[in-house]
Design brief:
It is built from five helices and no strands.
């Protein structure tokens, strides 16, 4: 009788642990996605203004509005996929595909002569690279945990187990 109670307690504790992990991962996904949702909606609603900056960083003027709008769609899609757990691994990959070129093209500090502007671009460059690293970890988390990662709407697209 005592052994059965001990087994039930351990099983119950294990279930509470996994539920806690699932909730913590969900909270992390919410916090992570919030930045990209806000940024993506900015791309979609302030395309003209952002296209001017994009063109100032070397993207051809004729392509800048489409680039801003397209990256806005990519960011929103990736963030929603991570947030909702709908092929969250693919959504994380979308974010990496956005972040790495953006870091290099839009925020590369090389060639910026004004020291304050160079420092700002370097900060943005490093932030984008750090977020790309975090998105890669999210990709691996979804792909490795697979269907065992709770509070998602679909299984991951990639099987990294």
């Amino acid at each position: 009788m005592e052994r059965a109670a001990s087994v039930r307690l351990r099983t119950s504790t294990w279930k509470v642990w996994w539920l806690t992990v699932d909730v913590l991962v969900l909270v992390g996904r919410i916090l992570f996605a919030a930045l990209f949702l806000m940024s993506g909606f900015g791309h979609l609603t302030q395309t003209k203004m952002m296209a001017q900056y994009t063109a100032s960083r070397g993207v051809p003027q004729a392509l800048a509005p489409a680039a801003v709008f397209g990256t806005g769609l990519l960011i929103v899609a990736g963030a929603l996929m991570v947030l909702l757990g709908v092929w969250g691994d693919l959504g994380a990959l979308f974010l990496v595909v956005f972040l790495v070129p953006t870091a290099v093209i839009m925020h590369g500090p090389w060639g910026v002569e004004d020291p304050q502007q160079r420092m700002m671009e370097q900060t943005q460059f490093l932030k984008d690279l750090a977020l790309a690293g975090a998105a890669l970890m999210v990709l691996v988390l979804f792909g490795w945990a697979g269907p065992d990662l709770g509070l998602t709407l679909t299984d991951p697209l990639f099987d990294l187990d």
